[in-house]
Design brief:
about 350 residues; three-stranded antiparallel sheet; globular; single chain; alpha/beta; binds 3'-phosphate-adenosine-5'-phosphate sulfate; four-stranded parallel sheet
């Protein structure tokens, strides 16, 4: 059977009705059905193929910076760091752009696939929709809200994406800088689980255990996990890619900021970096408020869980995984990091305590 190709050259395959019947309940809200992008099998709402082609064709600027990572890996944290380093390094409180929520001043170009969700209401994404009306007049929402707002942004742009490296334009690493953030997949599972339980336009009713196994099998949005991380890891020596982890950021944020300062060629002073570390700390970001519209979530549940800035710790999986689930995931991690040189810190039960 003919498999339509993306501009990136990847073949795509729609899920059959039999496969849809077995798919995670949260994935059945998309009007277009579901698609796998081959050969790795990236799983998305089928409409995503349109946005991927659109993203592939987006004009890249030499001073663009992308933050890429699997969902819930600490990408919002890194996004704020990069944004202030590039657009408000002295943390001027009167900076007009800073008054906008993060997701409006730094676009997640992988967000548009949610527009296909039949439960998504305009009020769930009010600030994004307002910005779109303001800066994209005459453009069609169906062509992507986040992508088209990003196209209208002044340079230097800081954009975020949860798509894997290979689905971006083939010249991405030749033309732009990319910061990739990975996180212990067990903590990703916990963080992602709380997120989708609270999303208003999702309806995940399953247990954490069920969800963790869906991620492991590659049966959830943005999966599979390992090819996502390993594609970036293999590029770690590329001068236009900086690979880091949530755990490294938690352990030594000043060290990470110094590396990023150098990577971006910014020459910010130690004093400026110290202030940026403080400004982007978990407690400061939480105090400043949600980076995306609250209406995107079920208010009570979202608030009770802690919102986007939920816990911000390493090793929360220890509070959630049964010994059996942990053993299964440890084996999965071992099988996948074997021979890659990638060390997933704190992934194993005998590692350091949560903090
Ligand atoms: S998303 O929705 O996919 O973009 O999520 P993402 O931002 O990648 O990851 C969310 C988790 O990152 C934690 N976070 C932080 N930790 C430490 N310091 C800061 N400043 C910070 N900002 C966000 C956030 O709390 C989520 O992790 P959990 O484990 O759920 O707390």
């Amino acid at each position: 059977m003919n498999k339509p190709r993306l501009l990136s050259g990847h073949e795509t395959e729609l899920l059959t009705s039999e496969e849809l019947r077995k798919a995670s309940e949260d994935l059945l809200k998309y009007k277009s059905g579901l698609v796998r992008i081959l050969p790795d099998g990236w799983l998305y709402p089928a409409i995503t193929t349109r946005y991927l082609d659109r993203l592939y064709n987006m004009e890249l600027r030499p001073d663009d910076v992308f933050i890429i990572g699997f969902p819930k890996s600490g990408t919002t944290w890194m996004q704020e760091i990069l944004w202030v380093m590039l657009r408000n390094p002295d943390l001027d409180p009167n900076n007009e752009e800073m008054k906008e929520p993060l997701w409006v001043r730094s676009l997640d170009v992988s967000f548009d696939l949610h527009l296909d969700n039949d439960k998504l209401a305009k009020r769930d994404i009010k600030s994004l929709a307002e910005k779109f009306s303001r800066v994209c007049s005459g453009k069609k929402v169906e062509d992507g809200m986040a992508i088209q707002i990003a196209e209208s942004q002044p340079s230097p742009r800081v954009m975020k994406s949860h798509f894997p490296l290979e689905l971006h334009n083939k010249d991405l690493l030749k033309k732009c800088k990319v910061v990739y953030v990975a996180r212990n997949p067990k903590d990703v599972m916990v963080s992602y689980y709380y997120f989708i339980r609270a999303m208003r336009n999702a309806n995940y009713q399953g247990s954490l255990e069920k969800f963790a196994r869906e991620i492991k099998k590659g049966d959830f949005r943005f999966c599979p996990y390992w090819p996502h991380v390993l594609q970036a890891w293999r590029q770690r020596d590329n001068p236009n890619l900086y690979f880091t982890t949530y755990e490294d950021m938690k352990d030594d944020i000043m060290g990470q900021l110094r590396n990023i300062n150098k990577f971006l060629g910014k020459n910010l002073t130690k004093e400026q970096l110290k202030k940026i570390a403080e400004f982007t700390s978990f407690s400061s970001m939480k105090t400043r408020g949600e980076p995306i519209d609250k209406a995107f979530f079920r208010e009570d549940m979202w608030k009770k869980q802690g919102g986007m800035f939920r816990k911000g710790i390493k090793g929360d999986w220890k509070n959630h995984f049964s010994p059996e689930l942990n053993q299964e995931m440890d084996q999965w991690i071992r099988d996948n990091v074997k021979d890659t040189g990638l060390n997933i810190q704190y992934a194993f039960a005998d590692a350091s305590p949560t903090k």
